Every structure is written in structure tokens, then in C-alpha cells.
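Async update (no meeting this week)

Hi team, since we skipped the sync, here's where things stand on the single-chain job. The sequence we agreed to prioritize is pasted below, unchanged from the tracker. I ran it this morning and attached the output directly underneath so nobody has to dig for it. Comments welcome in thread, and please keep replies under the output.
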Amino acid sequence: QIRTALALGADRGILIETDEEVQSLQAAKLFKSVVEKEEPQLVILGKQSIDSDNNQTGQMLAALTGMPQGTFASEVVVDGDKVNVTREVDGGLMTVGLNLPAVVTTDLRLNEPRYASLPNIMKAKKKPLEMTTPADLGVDVAASLKITKVEEPATRSAGIKVADVAELVDKLKTEAKVI
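Output:
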């Protein structure tokens, strides 16, 4: 994934190697260490991960670093020392203005990734890729959450078909007792 990002235009990459399963809080702490070292003005993360799918890491990173955050970004516009983040909400679009440095989590509608050309794929192999470990960054990645049980929700009973509105109203009064 990092080499793909390098082929798409990133200048260099950082790989944090671990054999442990990294949960959201530990990932945010790892990112915090990298942010403190690199001092970026804009940190862009995805909305969700494919493992826990819980949409927490970006918000946790913003809290740990004290940076403002924009979530579910469908458009990002940097204007000097500010960034405007547009996000979809139930009523339409909402734009928030943030001072840089800031953390932004993206929505799938933010952009359409370009394809890496063969020359850029070859150049990516020569770009710097720093490899580090959580211990090098001073972060303990031991799991802090334990899944104790997973169970399916109770099955719902099947619905019924009614012949007409009068029967529906009767069933709502007598059986469901909602009217």
C-alpha cells in the first residue's frame, strides 16, 4: 500500500512494523508519535479500517494531538493557514473551517484515485521508505480491549399481509395496541 502511494505521488513513506493486532487507540498513539516527529500541517486519514470498522482513529488522533478535526470530508480546500472541510449531513452539506495544523478523515466521495503509471511504479521502488517499530516510537501496542462475546440479534417474527385498510386499523388497535 505504501509503495502504491509512492507511485501515486508521495515523496516518501513510513512503515511501522508490528506482529501485534493494533487497535484504534494504539494506532492513534502511533500516528501521534509520527505527527510529533514530522510536524505536518494536515493529517489525512481514511474514515474506517477494514478490520474493526469503527471510525475512531482519526478522532482519537485529533484529541491526543490537540488538533482541530474535520470528519467525513467529501471536499477539502486549503486556504493559507486554514482548511475548509465539506461533509455530507442529513440535511445536505456542511462546511467547517479549521486552523492548521488539523486532522481530516475522508469520505469515499473525496476523490477518485488516479492510476499509477509504469514509470511512477518504477520510481516508487527508489523512493525512501523508513521502517520503524512501535517500541522505537515509544508506544505500547498491547490490546486494551477484549471482545468477551459476539452474538446475533434476536430474530424478528415474520410480518403479515392484510386485505384492506380496515383490517390494518383493527390489527393496530387490537393486536399491536398502538392506536
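Quick observations from my side:
The longest strand covers residues 69-79.
Strands lie at 13-16, 42-45, 69-79, 82-89, 92-99, 102-106, 129-132.
Reply here if anything looks off.
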